[in-house]
Write a structure and sequence with these properties.
Structural class: mainly alpha
Low-confidence stretches: none
Shape: globular
Number of domains: 1
Mean pLDDT: 88
Number of strands: 0
Largest sheet: none
Radius of gyration: 14 Å
Strand content: under 5%
Order of helices and strands: HHHHHH
């Protein structure tokens, strides 16, 4: 993925949109997100920022920043889709699949219909892109 740090930031914003889709971010959603990032994303991510921090943790930072600031929800799926279209590279399929698993984890942590609808949109987009780019 070109610009891994930005990818994780975009993913954090999208996860916020998924979690807030029912009107509030539930503690269960935030807890599941943090646990998944620590156990799954950070485990597989091999890039670090200039301070030596695993870049996967930018998902957490961006999610928390959006929770605090009540970040904008407009076009979260479209922005994520656009980022992937412009930055995905061959071999990114495993990262995208882990990201979808994280989205599912957050969406199902506190079961609501709106969250699942966003998740289905993202899955559709990522499947289509994977097919086009042979990720």
């Amino acid at each position: 993925m070109k610009n891994v740090k930005q990818y994780y930031k975009e993913l954090g914003r999208l996860l916020y949109a998924i979690a807030i889709a029912d009107g509030a971010v539930q503690a269960e959603e935030a807890d599941e997100l943090h646990s998944f990032v620590m156990k799954e994303l950070a485990h597989y991510e091999k890039t670090y920022d200039s301070s030596g921090m695993n870049q996967a943790f930018y998902v957490d930072f961006e999610f928390e920043e959006n929770v605090k600031s009540h970040g904008p929800l407009d076009n979260a799926v479209a922005v994520f889709k656009s980022f992937i279209e412009h930055n995905a590279e061959k071999g990114d399929q495993a990262l995208i699949e882990r990201s979808i698993s994280l989205m599912e984890t957050v969406a199902y942590a506190y079961s609501k219909k709106n969250e699942k609808n966003i998740l289905e949109q993202v899955k559709s987009v990522t499947r289509h892109l994977a097919d086009l780019k042979n990720l």
